[in-house]
Design a protein that fits this description.
251 residues; alpha/beta; Rossmann fold; five-stranded parallel sheet; globular
Length: 251
């Protein structure tokens, strides 16, 4: 079954860094499907993975991702529920139902795949990881804003800016320890994606060895800006936070 998979591609990074949008964008290409947060690889042997998939299929983005491949998302989730699939079996079912031309399979999951990246690279010789890096100040603003407006509680969103800062710092600590010369990992800044989509498409196409479709206008400039929402934010940031901003070219 997995002989059909040219590359397993995992997308990760900090929460609210644009990973969901990247997963959908790549899934618009004929040869790629990257569901959002199915935890297929982190729950490879977990017999309850079908529950996770069923929950995440409620997200409209996953229904769109499966629609691009001619699959009815809710019906598919029901099939997994009936079969009580673990992560491996869930992925097998996805492969069975995707068109023959699909050769890049994966998943998008913030933080978790970053924490497990060494084990995952060891498990799958043809696995690659795309890490989306975003300005920590924008990440903080987005986390706190979504915590306020969402009608249901999301574990990864934070009530206070200080809590959101800690989460971004944890992410950056993991990214800092990654070997920059590892050709199975690509770190790409979300801000560069917004300003030069063509370069992002070219970089990812080369990285996975498969052409990524160009879809102009897919990514939108964020509606909210941390500078406007939190004009005094720089005054409360830790020295460690500022160090990472400088290291990765954020002014």
């Amino acid at each position: 079954m997995f002989d059909k998979v040219k590359t397993h591609l995992l997308i990760t990074g900090c929460v609210r860094s644009g990973t969901t949008a990247v997963a959908e964008y790549l899934s618009m290409s004929d040869k790629i499907i990257i569901p959002a947060e199915f935890a297929l690889y982190s729950e490879w042997d977990n017999p309850d993975n079908y529950k996770r998939v069923h929950t995440m299929m409620r997200a409209r983005v996953n229904n769109r991702i499966f629609y691009y491949k001619g699959i009815h998302g809710y019906s598919f989730a029901r099939i997994l529920e009936v079969n009580r699939t673990n992560g491996r079996q869930s992925l097998e079912k996805i492969i069975e139902r995707c068109p023959e031309e699909v050769v890049i399979y994966g998943d998008k999951l913030p933080m978790t795949y970053l924490e497990q990246y060494e084990d995952l690279l060891g498990m799958f010789p043809n696995l690659k990881i795309l890490i989306i890096l975003r300005d920590g100040r924008a990440v903080m603003e987005s986390q706190v804003r979504h915590k306020k407006i969402d009608s249901y509680d999301i574990f990864w969103h934070r009530n206070r800016m200080e809590e959101a800062e800690d989460l971004w710092l944890k992410t950056m600590g993991m990214i800092e320890n990654i070997d920059e010369n590892n050709d199975r990992i690509l770190i790409y800044k979300y801000e560069n994606l917004l300003t030069n989509l063509s370069n992002f498409r070219e970089c990812v196409s080369e990285f996975i060895g498969t052409e990524v479709k160009m879809v102009e206008g897919f990514f939108k400039k964020p509606e909210f800006d941390w500078r406007t929402e939190y004009p005094d934010l720089m005054n409360i940031l830790s020295d460690e936070f500022k160090k990472y901003l400088e290291r990765y070219g954020y002014e």
